[in-house]
TrEMBL record, chains A, B, C, D:
Ranges of residues in domain GFO/IDH/MocA-like oxidoreductase: 146-293
Protein name per the record: Dehydrogenase
InterPro entries: Gfo/Idh/MocA-like_OxRdtase_N, Gfo/Idh/MocA_oxidrdct_glycsds, GFO_IDH_MocA-like_dom, NAD(P)-bd_dom_sf
Alphabetically ordered keywords of this record: NAD, Oxidoreductase
Occurrences of domain Gfo/Idh/MocA-like oxidoreductase N-terminal (ranges): 7-126
PANTHER family (alphabetical): BCDNA.GH03377
Gene3D superfamilies assigned: Dihydrodipicolinate Reductase, domain 2 (3.30.360.10), NAD(P)-binding Rossmann-like Domain (3.40.50.720)
Organism: Pseudarthrobacter enclensis
Length: 392, 392, 392, 392
């Protein structure tokens, strides 16, 4: 570990995602052999006290109050973007042009146009050995990575059905406070881009097929929320005093769309933060001619697999994805000792650093994320046009 | 039991549904106190030997080879229609006009026009105390009846989301033989009408709200199938010899649609016979502002209920719907001794006979079933029109 | 069906078990081809009005108020004993000696001595073509029958572990009323014989190995209960008025024992009616060198199977035991349409009538049931002797 | 964080447990506010190269090849013992006598006598503000901590039943190699002490009641194993070449015992590494007069709770233990984002450091662990004495 060349990281933002990324940067080299040694060199945030406290807590060596300073610093090799979507394009493009590798949280951008510019910048930079990746961290869940492996091995045969749900409930309370996630100018969209984007990426990645068209509806159940209140986790409790100001929700609360994939499969997607009782039910089911797979992030260490060849004694097999042969798992604990949410971020760092160290493009590239962005745009276009079928 | 006035039944058709209905007519009075005593008076079928054998096996006292004869007979009070959808309108209308009560399998008809005529006949007959019901038997599953009770009691609050899946896999094998279920002239539609209709009825009934509009896609994965073969259950093994003739599938294999319900809830529906590994997964989930419900017919004795008032220790509660207080259950076994598929048909008989005995309209009426038919038609219309939103 | 020779049944008792048996006698010939045609000829009970009402409701042609009359009647071929255990020996032996076949509810008797006499009578009668069977109906659950098939096929390898639980909760309420099930003079024992006997029989039958020794504890949590009250299902609500008399519980409320099986496997058993929330959790898990099986009657249509050969992608496979190839299932509904509690009794009739029709000994014989009785006795002996190991 | 006084840790051993503890020491201060700042000062191991590599990988500042040196060093405040059980007493007593706090892995010792001496040393040291804790880390699983909270709140009423299983399968392969865990001189016992000890501690802790007596059997299925081979995780693949030497297994492979708890509850325990398909199924179910709890570590973020007051609509409620109000959880991720195996160790550090910082005895104390040791000894004594009841 000590002899590896350093990879000096500068992170922008230090909220939920910042904490997860910090843990990953600290932890990855403790469990995996990496070609480069990550260093938590600097974190940037506009609030000087806030960023100082975060640096202490999360283990960053220095702070900046302007992300541009991170990019100017010579002692930073990689920019890790953990801010809302409206800032991604500017930061990422500046970083790439400055020769810094980039890890950018998802969704890649708030518009296809931004994503296209980012992809162009990424492809240009890659020619000079400067790489970028979009943070679709669910790809690094061992069970989903095993799902992809099964599809690639042909164990599902020809794929016919995809059903993807991402169900949360932290907005069910109509009085939970406004957040940047409900402000279209910052977040780009609501459930669609925040969680639906994960489903889209996972569905395309696991099946190895792109979505070619969609028909969609979007719904906003609660159109005004208290501007102040106690934000706990992603939800919380708004200020309901009679004169407390309320803000306007400008994004979708829920998105439903049907889809067709290249080559024939059809899919159905749903993303919502109002499915009371579902906390982080990122679910994916794929049915093929030979087998089926089912996954639910609320049981993240399990992949269910149905092998039709076992008929008439076939049944969904609950694979506890904790064997040393399973993706990422061998570097952790003995069989049966499950992983948690943050491991996806640690694995993301492992894959990113390994690719950079080996001089090759990490996945998902900005181009891969642009395809997701195009699906998001098609969904919004269809929804705005009486659900008419919209090509991606 | 012995003193109750008889209700003399004539059944048309004796295949899958005929066997289920026969068991129900035989069994209902053994476990429930009915105001009328069902008698299995006659069964009709075109094949004389077939219907004779079925009558012996299923317990019918006499046979007819023409359903018209059943209607002419004075000793028949009720016509039970268990034939494919293309025959429903003619039989049901003739029976009603002859003053016979009618139980008609679902979907009510193969077109809205037929369903409208049937409904008119039903409403006219009802004025003279002649009643009719459509066989949406899943309403009689105790867990779904309990779900409706919870909604009516306000335990879900205001409903926001409905997600309904009906997943089977008996057509996954591309070489399973043709059946009348794949012939639009007989069945009207494929997965949509056969199983999707159950989901539509259950969703509307449980929530107490009608669907007002849809956007849909339909897909046919396998367009030709062997005309001969070994039909086992609903699927089976086709004749694959090189010169075996093949027939054309003229219905949908899968249907996906989004929906809006009166009063605001949105829904997503999927029906397919290609979800490998899902055998009879008729699933319904409803999310409200106070609680949520989830049901899967593959665990038909369980209703999952989430009560937000129990937060932060809330969780989906797995109610084993076998308590004497639960719908229908008190007449069966002690707590914890689950029921099976056919009990829905027995309960259907109980509800039908009770309503007739009490001189009131049973539910679902033909009018209720007409509403389902209109949703089916809207789905087909949207699918044929680039998924454009279609009002019901 | 109509040409088969009749098998004229006389049933003793008409409570919970009587209703289940009646349904089975009525239903078996409707779904299965039997070599003999069961007829519900007569039912016996001491209360003239009660037995008359039961006969009408359950479909019996005639009644007797003394079981001895049933045995004397020439028009009875088989005696079906559905009374408490203290009556089994007398009725069964008299019936066998009178040349009547016998179906006797479990546990076979209230003592090993009685069971031995019954077995002797059964073996003597069998030489003359008069057969008997003990009603361990769980053997007829398709999932458990499939479990036995898997063991016989060697899919588990050498068996090492058995864990069997039978958990109910209908006595959790300390004020539920007394019943004959809590009176040792009638029931022989409590949870041990009532439900533990099922576990013992199932464990021995599925594994094909007898229990050779045990170490046990028995516990009675509630020693007095109201003598009057409202019995609902198996539990209910006692009369708690201050002067209401209370009776003494003379049986175990819970039994726990470890066991060794012939040939090496070890087992752990628990039976209780105080496992709050478990309604009819008759569970069996078997671990071998090649595979494992798990079953829970609360999901009676499912068998979980783990096949180590699939490692590292092995996992418990949830077999939905509703395929036509599965035991008993092909005679019922299409794949995915589950069965209920009472089907076990119908299958029991099928197996019994088929064996009698073919002139061979049905299983489980009284000798098989005697082995269960010996285990029950060994458990009681160990518990009475400081849990010291007790050979069976 | 930076202003807190340091707590300088010296760890002995660096295998499975060492890696888990190191991660915990590194991570705890990043997510929790601690009164003392842990420093990974030194790690000790006999193999100089091995310990050097481990220190680099796991993040320790210095190394020692003799644990006695750790104790001598002035710059060490706490000794963390991660070695096999036969070494615990000597190290722990020496450390305590030297004024170092001690965290000692479980089981506390290999005999009651050792555990008694350790407890005496701990109690003496505590008088001088030097504290010790035994590493029953499952207590720090949020779901189990919530279970204890429910019992303390009276939500279960009076407890009647405890059933505890700890099922693994890594020894199912009879050719997996010998390890120190199968050598009684190092490990003390087999499944009993390694995993059964966790069940015993959890059962006593959650219920708040000690076990007062047991009846037990122990079994060793495989008595010889290859001495060499490829150890993967806890199992692996032995060297099966014909002349490869084999070693003798001197511990139990499986342990089964019944138990009585102070105040009336009865329990049943099973620990095995031969339950094929069960990977880390540490399960605990508790039934009381008002409610029941069920937990399985294979779904470690879930606690199932049955509340009889909800009858007849009661059911086991699947609490996803990821709410900010749940033990430990608020310091991690938003609702619905589950934790993994290693979090228990991080929480253990949090509780230990907090107690030391506040000058109070952490739990479980050596005295608590001594009680577990006494149960282990009683189990072995009963098993050696024909399962005769053995007081603890």
């Amino acid at each position: 570990m000590t002899t590896a060349k350093p990879l000096r990281v500068g992170m922008v933002g230090y909220a939920f995602m910042g904490a997860a990324h910090s843990h990953a940067w600290r932890t990855a080299p403790r469990f995996f052999d990496l070609p480069l040694q990550p260093q938590l060199t600097a974190v940037a945030g506009r609030n000087a006290d806030g960023v100082r406290g975060a640096a202490d807590k999360l283990g960053w060596e220095s702070v900046e109050t302007d992300w541009r300073r991170l990019i100017e610093r010579d002692d930073i090799d990689l920019i890790d973007i953990c801010t809302p979507g409206n800032t991604h394009a500017e930061i990422a493009i500046a970083a790439l042009e400055a020769g810094k590798h980039v890890l950018c949280e998802k969704p890649l951008a708030n518009s296809v146009e931004e994503a296209e510019r980012m992809t162009l910048a990424a492809e240009t930079a890659a020619k000079h050995g400067v790489f970028s990746m979009c943070g679709f961290s669910y790809r690094r869940t061992p069970a989903l990575a095993l799902a992809k492996r099964f599809v690639e091995q042909g164990r599902l045969g020809e794929i016919r059905h995809v059903r993807a749900q991402y169900l949360q409930d932290w907005l069910s309370d109509a009085n939970a406070p406004m957040t940047w996630r409900l402000d279209k100018s910052k977040s780009g969209s609501g459930s669609l881009g925040d969680i639906g984007a994960h489903s889209i990426d996972a569905a395309q990645w696991v099946t190895g097929r792109n979505i070619s068209g969609v028909s969609a509806i979007l719904e906003t159940f609660v159109r005004e929320r208290p501007l102040a209140g106690d934000l706990v986790g992603l939800g919380g409790h708004g200020d309901l005093s009679s004169d407390a100001p309320r803000g306007t929700v400008t994004v979708d609360d829920a998105a439903i769309f049907s889809a067709k994939f290249d080559g024939g499969p059809i899919g159905v997607f749903e993303a919502t933060r109002y499915a009371l009782g579902r906390k982080n039910a990122m679910r994916l089911e794929v049915n093929g001619t030979k087998g089926s797979l089912a996954f639910d992030f609320e049981e993240m260490n399990v992949l269910s697999f149905y092998d039709a060849a076992e008929s008439p004694d076939a049944g969904f097999r609950r694979i506890f994805v904790t064997e040393p042969e399973h993706p990422y798992v061998g570097n952790w604990w003995p069989t049966g000792h499950g992983l948690g949410y943050e491991h996806g971020f640690t694995h993301q760092v492992v894959d990113l650093v390994t690719a950079i160290g080996e001089g090759r493009q990490p996945e998902p590239s900005f181009g891969d994320a642009l395809q997701v962005q195009r699906v998001l745009a098609a969904v919004e276009s269809s929804a705005a046009n009486s659900s008419q079928w919209q090509k991606v």
